[in-house]
Amino acid sequence: MKKFKFLWCCVFVCMIFISFKKTYASSLFIGGKLERGVSNMNYYVDSSANGYTSLINAAVNNWVDTGYGWNPIYMNPVSSNYATDVDFYARYGDEISEGILARTSCYNINEASVNPSTSNWFFAKIEINVPTISNYSSYVQQGTIAHELGHAFGLDHQNNNVNSIMCQVGNGRVVQTVDQTSHNAINTLYNN
Questions:
Q1: Quick check: helix, strand or coil at residue 182?
Q2: Residue 177: how many CB atoms within 10 A of its CB?
Q3: Domain 2-190 - what CATH class?
Q4: pTM for the full model?
Q5: Where are the domains of the chain?
Q6: 108: nearest Cα among 94, 95, 118, 97
């Protein structure tokens, strides 16, 4: 009888753990993802964002080589935004709400905006809010660009984890490089 109760207790604990793990894992993702995947992406830096090129390149390289082993991400810089996967722009003032460091928007093949929580997207546009982001160190700026790239790939905010690149600065993010959980989430999202 004791063995039977112990077995049921173990089954119950395992069910709770599996349920928690599924809920946690599903909250890593926005809902959609890049239709063409992340294996051979092209990114474009608009002339408005030329001052951020080295930070953009560093953030891209951090996603390509996270330090946590293989992932499918590979990104090439290109000189035109024709058929790119991610485009970077700088914005000055009224185009983005005050207090926002940057934002990511997703679009279909016809360049119509899509809701990333319900649709996949053909390309993403990352807009850097110059008046706000310039109040932060270049290290935080690079982390913000890496954070926005995470959105472009399909990752959601992880504001309950200050050690995640997907935590917002305003919620106390303490890392500015890709963490293992985000790295693993990309592998899950694009290798299934």
A1: helix
A2: 16
A3: alpha beta
A4: 0.86
A5: 2-190
A6: 118
